Amino acid sequence: MTTTIRRATMACGAAVLGLIAATAGAAPAQAAARNGICESGEFCYYYNSYNQGSVSDFTASVADYGTSQPDCYEFKGPGAGQYQCIKNNAASVWNRSTVTVRVYYNSNYGGTYMDVGPGYKGQLSAALYNNNASHQFNPTSGGGGFSIGPFSIGGSYAHSHSKETFSSAITGGTIRVPGVQIIGVISQVVPLCPPV
């Protein structure tokens, strides 16, 4: 690959990553620090069913809750479960934030998940009841693609409960791609091959 093509490829890759990063939402910042009280703007776990027992409150995503004291996220509020690690110990939740929060079975946002919409107050799903290891505010994912010959352009974007997929088609020698496109051409004159 020539330097020009490498630079163009890196620039396109950086632009796609920048777009994905820009669409990933941040958690609201109006709530207080973690204090065991479920306040406006927070996502809260409860140790017991039906939003009973000790509370663990969050304003940001956490990829791994930890499994033992003193390095784990714990239930802070008064009541059953206080000072216990929340990993695999939460039974119910209350989403007092303004965005969807996704609760995952595994650490690092993996495995089975449950999307908890703003205002939801209730039980975790059967698969996540006392089986929670991470959560993510305003979960967003994206993807993309491009190939040359026979011209394939595509991509996808998912945000919370919505998903958009983009595709292309070739009809009668015409490439059709709905939506906005950015087209660029990089060319370089290739020198003649030496005689053999």
Polypeptide structure, described:
By secondary structure, the chain is mostly beta strands. The chain has 2 domains: 83 residues, no CATH class; 95 residues, Crystallins (Gamma-B Crystallin, domain 1). It has 1 helix and 12 strands; from the N terminus they run αββββββββββββ. It has a 4-stranded antiparallel β-sheet, with no helix packed on it. A 3-stranded antiparallel β-sheet has the order 5-4-7, with no helix packed on it. A hairpin with a 4-residue loop joins strand 8 and strand 9. It starts with a helix and ends in a 20-residue tail after the last strand.
Describe the SSE topology.
Blueprint: H1 3-23, E1 43-48, E2 52-58, E3 92-95, E4 101-106, E5 110-116, E6 121-123, E7 134-137, E8 140-147, E9 152-159, E10 162-166, E11 169-171, E12 174-176
Antiparallel strand pairs: 1-2, 1-3, 3-6, 4-5, 4-7, 8-9, 9-10, 11-12
